[in-house]
TrEMBL record:
Keywords: Hydrolase. This is Alpha/beta hydrolase. Residues 39-286 form the AB hydrolase-1 domain. The keyword Protein biosynthesis does not apply. It comes from the Bacteria. It holds the Pfam family Abhydrolase_6.
């Protein structure tokens, strides 16, 4: 797999070329130049790589080389994403996974990978391809074989799934929708601050893929849970998460524990889906850091 270095050219082409942003290029080059293990951060829907900025600083201070990778066509800022949501539309789980795998292939060392929500699903996909030295999936979106259908998850996904045309669109959340699906465990004041700081439109396709994964044998929303090269995996679940409640995280854990590698799960008390970006983010980061330190 070849990597072409360009600012806005970063689509997968038939020749197998993946194009990266300057953001990705600089982080990968910096990680390769450092004598440190890389830690790759993967965001989920309705967020951008900048949602990991505090985590990146925290892990760098702990001795790692942070790499918060973009999804294909991620704008540089929240403001840009909200002005031009069309650039986010049409991304599928498989396209994003292949894009991230190619970028990770540019690292000299096998990284730890940490992902949130759909980033947690992508983390498990990448680990299942043997690309991770250790992985942390935080409130991960479900994959094929994860069977529960919690009512709160259906309500959180409703802004996208109630309109089939949203499969090919980038869909924003209203504040009330964000409050329910992300920020239900924080104050109204903090929820508004999180919404204004972090929320961007998200491609609808991944939600449709996850919703139909158990009906589609060819789905891209699937994980190789049995690969012995998967490496150690920790799943973190927020106790009050509406979008990915314990039932989903625990079902993912039960599928993953079939792997010969170490598989663990932990529940963070009184935390919602915004646990990686709200004022309690460092407790979650330290939980992930403690796990990563055990192995890399």
């Amino acid at each position: 797999m070849h990597v072409y270095r360009g600012l806005r050219d970063r689509h997968r082409h038939p020749g197998g070329i993946v194009r990266m942003t300057t953001h990705d290029e600089e982080l990968i080059e910096r990680a390769n130049a450092a004598d440190r293990t890389p830690v790759v951060f993967v965001h989920g829907l309705w967020l951008l790589p900048s949602s990991w900025d505090r985590w990146a600083d925290h892990f760098e201070q702990a001795g790692y080389a942070p790499v918060s990778l973009s999804w294909p066509d991620d704008p540089d800022t929240v403001e840009e994403a909200n002005r031009h949501p069309e650039v986010l539309a049409g991304k599928t789980v498989g396209q994003v996974a292949d894009h991230l795998a190619a970028l990770i292939g540019g690292l000299k060392r096998r990284p730890a990978i940490i992902g949130h929500s759909f980033g947690g699903l992508l983390t498990q996909i990448l680990a299942g391809r043997g690309l991770s030295a250790a992985s942390v999936a935080i409130d991960p979106a479900p994959f094929r074989g994860v069977l529960p259908l919690p009512v709160s998850s259906l309500r959180a996904a409703a802004p996208v799934l109630t309109n089939p045309a949203n499969r090919n669109r980038a869909v924003p959340l209203t504040f009330d929708q964000f409050r329910y699906s992300f920020a239900n465990a924080v104050s109204d004041e903090e929820a508004r601050q999180l919404y204004e700081t972090f929320a961007v439109p998200a491609p609808g396709a991944p939600l449709f893929q996850a919703a139909t994964a158990n009906l589609n044998p060819w789905t891209e929303a699937k994980v190789d849970t049995e690969n012995p090269e998967r490496g150690p995996l920790l799943i973190i679940s927020g106790e009050k998460d509406h979008t990915v409640p314990w039932a989903l995280s625990n079902a993912s854990y039960k599928r993953q524990r079939r792997n010969p590698g170490i598989t663990e799960i932990i529940e963070m008390k009184d935390r919602g889906h915004a646990l990686t970006i709200d004022q309690g983010w460092q407790e979650v980061a330290d939980t992930a850091l403690t796990f990563v330190r055990r192995f890399v």
